[in-house]
Structures are given as C-alpha cells and as structure tokens.
Specification:
about 120 residues; globular; about 35% helix; mainly alpha; 4 strands; single chain
Length: about 120
C-alpha cells in the first residue's frame, strides 16, 4: 500500500473537479483564497498577478474598507472570467410552507430556525 499522495495522484493535471465549499467566516478573502497559488490542492490554477492583487486587497482592507471592497469585486470578476471557480448551487434558495412565518436566511448559519414560527 502506498502513501496518500501515491494513492490519489493523477497521471495528468485535473482540469475539472466538483467540490463543496461553505464559508468559515463572511469575508471575500474566504472564497477568493481558493484561487491563490497553492490555495486549494485540487485546483490547477496559479497566477502570480492574482496573488499580488489578492495580497493588496487583504492589506487594503485594514486602511480603506471601501477601496478594498472594490478590489475584492475586481478579483471576483477575475476568477469568473478565468472560470477558476464556477458556482453550481445557490445556498439559501429554500422553499417553505405558507404556514411558516418570519423565515430568515443567514449566509453562514443558514436558516434561522429559532426565528421562524408555524401556524
């Protein structure tokens, strides 16, 4: 029996992988860090210019939050344009009965059951 790396190595770089990801905390760097060089072992994507822009946005958020948001938006568009990360699910698209009231969805905690009521 070989090592984990030997067991799960591929003969060629992976072009596509299906994986799930949910936020640990709510900030753009949480998802965009996946596109950094070495940010996710399953991705075969590495762009030093992206990494430099990411680091700039990360440093900028401490001094100018509005400018940092613009940088994060540009980085988000960058990975969409390069098709680095392609979302296939939209969390929070829930269906509830008409008898359910005060339905609220939080992007980190998902449905807030303690806020709902049922007739």
């Amino acid at each position: 029996m070989g090592t984990i790396d030997e067991l799960f190595s591929w003969p060629a770089p992976i072009s596509l992988t299906l994986t799930g990801w949910s936020p640990d905390y709510l900030y753009p760097s949480n998802f965009l860090a996946l596109a950094k060089c070495g940010g996710d072992e399953q991705m075969n994507y590495c762009d030093p210019e992206f990494d430099a822009a990411f680091d700039h946005a990360l440093n900028l958020q401490a001094t100018d939050a509005a400018a940092a948001i613009a940088e994060w938006q540009a980085l988000d568009q960058w990975i969409v344009d390069d098709a680095v990360i392609v979302p296939f699910q939209n969390a929070g698209a829930d269906f509830v009965s008409a008898r359910v009231g005060n339905y609220q969805y939080h992007p980190l905690y998902e449905p807030l059951f303690d806020q709902m009521w049922v007739q």
